[in-house]
Amino acid sequence: MSTLKKLGVLMITGGLLSACTGVSYGHRSFNPSPEYAEMMEADSRRVQNAERAERAERRRERRQEMMDEADAYRRATQGQRVYILR
Predict the structure, then answer these.
(1) What CA–CA distance (Å, rounded) separates 37 from 40?
(2) Model-level pTM?
C-alpha cells in the first residue's frame, strides 16, 4: 500500500472516530459546571503527581538495586582478572 493510500485511510479513520467522541448518553450530553470541571482538573493533577512520584520511586529503587549488584560483583571479583565471553 502506498504512503498516500495509507495517509488517506488514516484520515478517513480519524474522521470517523472523531465523530464518535462526544460524551453523551442517548439524547443527553455531559456539561460539567465550572466548579465540577475545576474539581475534576484538580483531581487529575493530583493523580498525575502521585503517579509521577511512584515512577520516580521505582526508578530510585531500581538504580539502588543496580548499584548493589555492581558492588557485589566488584567485591566478588576484587583483585581477579575476569573475562566475559559472548
Answers:
(1) 5
(2) 0.50
